[in-house]
Write a structure and sequence with these properties.
This protein is α/β, with parallel strands linked by helices. The chain has two domains: 22-114, Translation factors (Elongation Factor Tu (Ef-tu), domain 3, Beta Barrel); 126-258, Rossmann fold (3-Layer(aba) Sandwich), CATH 3.40.50.80. The protein has five helices and 13 strands. Helix 4 (208-218) runs parallel beside helix 5. It is globular, with a radius of gyration of 19 Å. The relative contact order is 0.15. The model is unreliable at 263-271 (pLDDT under 50).
Length: 271
């Protein structure tokens, strides 16, 4: 990991507020700027569907700072373990610089769920999940829940990152593929193969949208037998969708979840 130069955040986080209804119950750091967080409601968990997102936040200097995150955990675990989020630290004074300062046990506000990025019921087609960075989160929720239900779906997951160390959930996915726990083919790709941080990498290289055609060809994914879900950077989504359509995938076979509007920086809400 390389040390990140971050802005100094002097905002005073309110330890409690009437609007708080949840707590940060667990955290696992993956890199300096990637981490898994679990937030749990004080009362009963709110039901959600895999693929949906929750909005979490805290008050600081009298203002509520918050941001939506796709849930990575399956719905069945939200009552006991809380809602799992896979988050990247954004180096501007907004919500994530507050989140990185929160100790486990700190009170928070959480609302939701929202979103229509959902699995179709009884869909027997091969599912191709394409994501970059933290965009893999909703796909983990989908796979974990269908596995728990005893009805996993034949899946190919293409996950693109700049560096090997950023491949979230890699061990879990490799384990599923290796021992047959889930009928998944895991296809990670690294966009900066010549960087020293990726020394030793022997897998696919290139951006996700630039390798999706090769993945489809190598794995014999036929448009009429495949449904595609894409989540993450909006430019990647639009580019990947264009490639797929050039290879015969009709638009109605492709579902999209843009993490922020095309042409805008990553949003973080205050208010």
């Amino acid at each position: 990991m390389t040390e990140k130069i971050l802005p100094h955040d002097e905002r005073v986080i309110d330890p409690d507020a009437p609007q708080y209804n949840a707590s940060l119950v667990r955290r696992e750091d993956m890199t300096d700027d990637l981490a898994y967080f679990w937030v749990k409601y004080d009362d009963d968990a709110v039901p959600f569907e895999p693929g949906q997102y929750m909005t979490t936040g805290v008050f600081a200097d009298g203002k509520l700072w918050q941001r939506p995150y796709s849930v990575a955990s399956p719905p069945r675990e939200s009552g006991d373990g809380g809602y799992e989020f896979y988050v990247r630290l954004v180096p501007i004074i907004r919500f994530t610089t507050l989140l990185w300062r929160l100790p486990v046990g700190h009170r928070m506000r959480m609302i939701g769920p929202k979103g229509k990025f959902l699995l179709e019921p009884e869909d027997r087609r091969t599912h191709l999940y394409i994501s970059t960075g933290t965009g893999i989160a909703p796909f983990m929720s989908m796979m974990r829940q269908t596995l728990a239900d005893g009805r996993p779906r034949k899946t190919v997951i293409l996950h693109g990152c700049s560096f090997v160390e950023e491949l979230g959930y890699r061990e879990e996915l490799e384990s599923w593929q290796r021992d047959g726990t889930y009928p998944v083919i895991y296809e990670p790709t690294i966009s900066r193969p010549n960087d020293p941080r990726n020394t030793g990498w022997t897998g696919r290289t290139g951006r996700a949208e630039n390798v999706v055609a090769a993945v489809c060809k190598d794995l014999h994914l036929r448009p009429e037998q495949t449904v595609v879900y894409i989540c993450g950077n909006p430019d990647m989504i639009l580019n990947a969708e264009s490639v797929l359509m050039d290879h015969g995938f009709p638009e109605f076979h492709v579902k999209k979840e843009l993490y922020w509007p095309k042409g805008k920086v990553v949003p973080e809400m205050a208010g």
